[in-house]
Design brief:
This is Putative ankyrin repeat and SOCS box protein 2-like. Pathway: Protein modification; protein ubiquitination. There is one protein chain. Among the domains are: about 80 residues, Serine Threonine Protein Phosphatase 5, Tetratricopeptide repeat, CATH 1.25.40.20; about 30 residues, no CATH class. About 45% of the residues lie in helices and about 0% in strands.
């Protein structure tokens, strides 16, 4: 039928509304017989459509091997770019067509042609999780080109939780602590810089573990990755970061507080708060108040923004932002934060858990007022007023003497199980 309409004068390079020619259509169906008929009739080999997409790009995108070989055999340009700078190799890498990537490379496809945004085929393969294609492209990709791109393939793998890709990249020499280009980093409110932070911010725990096992630092980002992990509400990720040396008392750079910021980020997530306290988070600072038992000055709602368990900031999406300015001229106290309308409904259980990690303390008038506001919280108030047992005080003293690093490896110490349970606050 194609031959028939051509013999009756059909224009072989006629375009449809999207700019496709008949050759585009034949390639998309992997029909090499029709491709041959069209080419013999004078069809252009590299006709770009509206978006500069050639038939060869279509074949690479859709994994049409026979059509691709036919076009290359007829002289199609394997390095022709679309209006966005995308090549056939980009498309094959993005869509996971390993055999086509391998063929294009043997036909001198350039793995170092960037898109208009500076991304190479290796970036595409890493982002979409095609680790076998990543292995093919690493050896033919210029390290210089990678250094001049705005983001590394490792960052993209971390962002999209491609832990297998991350492992391949690291094994082939990627720098686990490479930081994002400043021009790209400033696009994020928290100024994130490392692949580890990207992994944590996108709940990519598997990739975070791969990065940490390869030596990723927890101290290179302006905002601690631990703060982001706490914000996400994932106990296992928080434990992982603490095991690798993250500072449990890390602060939010844009908000001054007299108590650890991780406590504010926990909100009503008591298991996560317990994990942090068990790992040495400073609970005593929560009960240090400049006003003590005296009256507190009247103030508006705390400017410290609180985050729910789903990871969303309840008052603003820029809790960890570095470009927000604190509107107060002093550090916010725990009693002020816990008294806000958002937090006060969880005050009792939070204070109760904090009391398990401190010795003798005295509640300030604001915390006392909070506990008096609900009848079910009165046992918590009585607990704060009662003398702490010698057993509890000894435990706290021993934990302090041991230090945080030893506490992290408590279960591996040559101690009886009962002592380990005692020191880990399990009993």
């Amino acid at each position: 039928m194609v031959s028939l309409v051509l013999t009756h004068g059909a224009t072989v390079n006629q375009r449809c509304g999207q700019g496709w020619t008949a050759l585009h259509e034949a390639v998309s169906r992997n029909n090499t017989e029709i491709c041959e008929i069209l080419i013999r009739a004078g069809a252009a080999i590299n006709p770009p459509n509206t978006y500069s997409i050639t038939p060869l790009t279509v074949a690479a995108q859709q994994g049409q091997m026979r059509a691709l070989c036919c076009l290359i055999g007829k002289g199609a340009d394997v390095n022709m770019q679309t209006c966005d700078g995308v090549t056939a190799l980009h498309e094959a890498s993005k869509n996971g067509h390993k055999e086509i990537v391998a063929l294009l490379l043997t036909k001198h496809a350039d793995a170092n042609k960037p898109t208009n945004t500076g991304l190479l085929p290796l970036h595409f393969a890493a982002q979409y999780g095609h680790h076998e294609i990543v292995s093919l492209l690493v050896s033919v990709t210029s390290r210089t080109r990678l250094r001049h791109s705005c983001v590394s393939p490792l960052h993209l793998a971390a962002e999209h939780n491609r832990h297998t890709v991350a492992a391949v990249l690291l094994k082939t020499g990627a720098d686990v602590n490479a930081t994002l280009a400043h021009s790209h980093s400033i696009q994020y409110a928290d100024r994130r810089a490392t692949a580890l932070y990207f992994a944590i911010a996108n709940c990519s725990r598997e990739t975070a573990e791969v990065l940490l096992n390869t030596g990723a630092s927890v101290n290179l980002d302006p905002v601690s990755p631990l703060l982001m992990a706490v914000r996400q509400g994932c106990v296992s990720t928080v434990s992982l970061l603490l095991d690798r040396g993250a500072d449990v008392d890390a602060r939010i750079p844009s908000y001054a507080t007299t108590f650890p910021a991780v406590i504010a980020l926990c909100m009503n997530n008591l298991p996560l708060l317990k994990c942090l306290l068990d790992n040495g988070c400073d609970a005593v600072s929560c009960f240090s108040c400049a006003h003590g038992s005296g009256p507190h000055p009247a103030s508006g709602e705390s400017h410290i923004r609180t985050v729910g368990r789903n990871g969303h900031d309840l008052q603003n999406d820029h809790l960890l932002s570095l470009n927000c300015c604190e509107t107060t001229d002093r550090a916010r106290q725990f009693c002020e934060w816990i008294s806000t309308p958002v937090m006060c409904k969880w005050a009792g259980p939070i204070i109760d858990l904090l009391l398990e990690h401190v010795g003798h303390i005295q509640l300030c008038s604001k915390l006392t007022e909070l506990l008096d506001s609900r009848e079910e919280w009165l046992p918590v108030k009585r607990k704060s007023l009662s003398p702490r047992t010698l057993l509890h005080l000894c435990r706290l003293r021993i934990r302090t003497q041991m230090g945080r690093e030893r506490l992290k490896s408590l279960t591996s110490l040559p101690l009886p199980d009962r002592v380990i349970r005692y020191l880990s606050l399990a009993d």
